[in-house]
Amino acid sequence: MPRVSQDQLDARRQEILTAARVCFARHGYEGATVRRLEEATGLSRGAIFHHFRDKDSLFLAVAEDDAAAMVETVARNGLVQVMRDLLARAASPDTTGWLGSQLEVSRRLRTDPAFARRWTERSAAIAEATRDRLLRQREAGVLRDDVPVDVLAQFLKLAYDGLVLHLAMGRPADDLGPVLNLVEEAVRRR
Description:
Blueprint: H1 6-31, H2 34-41, H3 45-51, H4 55-77, H5 79-88, H6 93-111, H7 113-139, H8 149-168, H9 177-187
């Protein structure tokens, strides 16, 4: 029997995550049945659950994958850049799927205590990356110093959450560039 390389396993896992993200976004967690996940991925349930213990683990992996990408962008360029990137891709089907996953994470945080406990670690990484970036910006003299960093981080998180909700609701995105400029100006040194 031929051996499957780690690269092949990783590629298959990523294919499953990509297809599952769209399925969860389109149908919600409950509506993303195993049959729908099979259809979305083009794989059997055995192939899907070879990589993930169960549907809950698959959903959490999708959310973790999104969070890891966000942490990287925040660390390099800040949370406003995450918002700009999101706005630039607002009409893309991948972004639509990502927005749906974010809304599903929000819903599960309110309704599923076990999920909320598991998610706490992931959201802490985003908050830490944001705070670290803001501290570096303050040390460089770019960030305003009359407001505590934690308050600025909360402000940016609220702006981000509002943007996600706005886009997920299908509201227009073409006029939000100036709004993000205002968000960025609000945290900059005057």
